[in-house]
Structure formats: C-alpha cells, structure tokens
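Crash report, auto-generated. Payload:
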Amino acid sequence: MVHKRPASYHTRQGQCILDYLKSLGGSHVTVNQIVRHFEDAEEVIGQTTVYRHLEKLTAQGKIRKYVLNADRNACYQYVDNAVNCRDHFHLKCEICGSLIHVDCDFLDEIEGHFRSEHDFQINMLKTVFYGTCKQCVPGS
Amino acid sequence: MVHKRPASYHTRQGQCILDYLKSLGGSHVTVNQIVRHFEDAEEVIGQTTVYRHLEKLTAQGKIRKYVLNADRNACYQYVDNAVNCRDHFHLKCEICGSLIHVDCDFLDEIEGHFRSEHDFQINMLKTVFYGTCKQCVPGS
DNA sequence: TTGCGTGCAAAGGTTTTGCATGGCA
DNA sequence: TGCCATGCAAAACCTTTGCACGCAA
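Recovered output after restart:
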C-alpha cells in the first residue's frame, strides 16, 4: 500500500508564529518586528524560519502580505478564516492601516467586466483595494 | 546682487532617461530594465544616475513610482500630462507575472461605487488586481 | 569658475538559498 | 525511520551613500 506522507509537520515555531499573528487582531507587522518579538520572549526562532512560514501562510490565505508605499520591506497581517474571503472585497486604508471586509454584489460586476472586456480572471482572495477610509478622509 | 544659480543642469543622461520613459508610452519598467536598455544601446549611464533621475522625476510628478505587492523592486512609469487625469488599472497575472496596464472607463464606476456605497476613496495608483491573464488561463 | 551631475565602488538593508542538524509523525 | 523543518551563514538582490572627477552654464 501507498504510505501516506503528511504535507507538512506541526511544529512549535509554526504554531508560535501563527499564534502571534492572530494575537495582533488584524494589525500588520514586519518580519523584523516578528523576529524581535520572539527574541524578547526568549523563544528562539530563526528569521529564515519566519520567512518560510510567512510565505506558506500567505499562500494558504491565512495571512496577507502587503508592500506599503514608501517602504521596501513587507508587512504581514492575519486574516480571520471564519469569513469566506472569496465572496467580498478587501479595502485597505493607507492611512490607518485597517482592513475592511465588504460584502457587496458589485463584486460580480467587476469580475464580469474584467473577464469579458479584458480576458482577465480576477482573484479576489489576493486583490486588495487601497485607499482612504471614512474615518481618515481629510476634512470630514 | 544675488547671483542666480540654476536649480539643475541639463545633461545627456537626464535627457536619455526621460526620453526612454516617454517612448514607452505609459508601460512600466524597473530600474534594471532601464539600465539594461542603455547597456544594449551602448549608452553608458550608471545605475546610480538612473536611480537619482528617477527620484527627481518622481518628485516632479513627471513619472510615477509603484511598489507592487509580491515584488521587491519598484516600477516606474511615464505620466503624460496631457492625458494625466486618466488613471488606469493594474492587472497582475499571478502565473506569468506580467503587469497589464489598462485604460478603461469602468474605472469611474468602481471609484464611484466605493465612494458612494462604502465611503471609501480608492487609490487606483496603488491598487492592483491579481488574477490570471488570457495567456495563462488553463484550457485556452 | 562654480557647483551640480556622474559613475565607480562600497555600504546598507531585506529576502533567499545551501547545507548539516533537529524533530514530528 | 523517513522526511520535513530549522537555523546558521552566506549569497543574492535592490537601493543608497561616499567621493573624486566631469561637465553645463
């Protein structure tokens, strides 16, 4: 018989990283901040390991990766899986950094437009609309 | 009397870089592509010079700088002031990595929708639609 | 002549890779 | 026991900085 081999192992480091990202409740962190957090907590996790977990978690859709405007380094943010992110928009405020989930039928229009007019199949899981949210609009 | 000193000099390199960006008609290039272009054309322009001109042109608003998600390097694009008011979409293919630049009136609909329905001011310069382009759609 | 522009080399900072060892199942 | 995961060090990358020389005005 074929021996079933696991896709991945459960490790202390992987759990720590995911727990930490969850504990931040949606705010974003850089790789540097993550590494320093574990240094302060005296949990030894190499930065290579952090990078590799972040890449995996991003591919799984459990976290999101952002490259904010002027900075050259990436930011990562936990995404609550309780909500199905395929069915709605993500609006990211460039000022306060909050990620807004929006359920709206307009999604279908956008997907349809790009498919029929531009032969492009949008991946809404990955796509993020950047802009300014209500709270951060100047003069309001 | 105060001697008038020029804000900047006109140089061969600066002209070459601006001409090249203009010649691309709005599509995006990385610093690397610019440097290689001049290597191929046997115009010697150091990469430091390229960086410095791009910085200056960006500050002047003659070109735009983008830092796309997932990529670590910046892209630059010439902005024609005659057609400047017209923003555009970015479609990034997740498979082949190509960045497609689309001018389309549908932009106004999207901007209007988010503004009126969700109180969110979209920044189309930063927003990138991820997905699969025509060439990369499986089974076509 | 003045002082900005240029380009080489080196530094600075982030992310990836090679490889031997560690640890999960 | 079989592999994946880990982490150190080094490499790979992109961008910035220092400095002496070049060149526009």
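Post-recovery validation: Residues 1-84 of chain B form a domain with the Arc Repressor Mutant, subunit A fold (CATH 1.10.10.10).
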